[in-house]
Amino acid sequence: MATSVSRRVPKTAHYDQSAFSCKTILFNCNCHSFEDVETQLIKAIHCTLSRARAIAWKVHTVGSEVVYSGHKERCEAVAEVLAAVGLIVK
After folding, report:
1. Phi and psi torsions of 25, nearest 5°
2. Contact residues for 33 (Cβ-Cβ < 8 A; gap 6+)
3. C-alpha pair distances (Å), 18 with each of 22, 36, 44, 64
4. Which of 9, 29, 32, 76 yields a CA-CA distance of 20 to 30 A from 53?
5. What string of H, E and C letters represents the secondary structure of 73-88?
6. What is the tens place of the pLDDT at every residue in 26-68?
7. Cβ-count burial of 82 within 10 angstroms (0-12 exposed, 13-18 middle, 19+ buried)?
8. What is the pLDDT of residues 75-90, one digit of tens each?
């Protein structure tokens, strides 16, 4: 005798994930001092000097780094602060 097994798919909340998966990427440009980059990072993402130094070093050595991820509007605001002094962001 065969039995029928019904599989239930759990319901999940539906929302626009694109609003939550944005990223601001800082690229190395060799035209700013570490101090300039650190200062702008502190202003843009409200991080400590230690964190800003770590990000600046990674950008310098690797070529780019995600400096913020989250809502699209906040990513754009972070990018604007960084770009205000000529840093290359996407």
Report:
1. -115, 130
2. none
3. 7, 31, 22, 22
4. 76
5. HHHHHHHHHHHCCCCE
6. 999 989 999 999 999 999 999 999 999 999 999 999 999 999 9
7. buried
8. 999 999 999 999 999 9
pTM higher than the cut 0.85: no
What is the per-residue pLDDT for 14?
A: 43
Asked if 68 and 27 count as a contact pair (C-beta separation under 8 A), the reply is no
Amino acid at the residue 72: K
Name the phi and psi angles at 18, rounded to 5. -60, -30
Q: What's the rounded Cα separation, in Å, for the pair 64 and 31? A: 14
